[in-house]
Design brief:
Length: 158
């Protein structure tokens, strides 16, 4: 059985990876939504090196190609897209439950993005990094990726 969550926005995927790496270094778990005083955590803003984002985009694209080969040869596969999860997490949970042969599935209580905001808000050097990316192999994707953000903060009640 193969499960895959597919996030087509490689830019946000790479930001998330960078953020998780930084948080791990300082001992902060990515899913800790509040600090020690129970205040909601503010997303971190980072200076991301051009070489790091280039490497991440390249590795992410290669990993996706490898995983697609695995999916094409596996018997039992379910692919969950990030956009489907954002738009209707309960429908996705029912799909997963059916795939697994479960009779009942719990409803998703509340879904919150770990990294909300524009790339400009999340990446301190976004202007320079954006210009670098617009001059590279992902130039045709950058504006689309910038515009895409799952703004869903609660699941649909059904």
């Amino acid at each position: 059985v193969v499960f895959r969550t597919d996030r087509s926005n490689l830019l946000r995927k790479c930001y998330s990876r960078y953020d998780m790496r930084v948080r791990e270094r300082i001992g902060e778990h990515i899913f800790d939504k509040t600090d020690e005083n129970n205040h909601r955590r503010v997303p971190h803003s980072h200076m991301i090196p051009e070489s790091w984002i280039d490497g991440c985009l390249k590795r992410t694209k290669m990993n996706a190609a490898t995983f697609n080969q695995i999916i094409n040869t596996a018997k039992d596969v379910i692919v969950i897209t990030y956009s489907d999860l954002c738009s209707d997490a309960n429908r996705v949970l029912r799909k997963v439950g059916k795939f697994l042969g479960l009779q009942e599935i719990a409803q998703a209580s509340e879904l919150r993005k770990s990294h909300s905001g524009s790339m400009h808000d999340l990446v301190k050097n976004w202007g320079k990094l954006r210009q670098h990316l617009l001059n590279g192999p992902y130039a045709d994707q950058i504006e689309k990726w910038e515009a895409e953000e799952c703004m869903q903060t609660h699941t649909h009640k059904q």
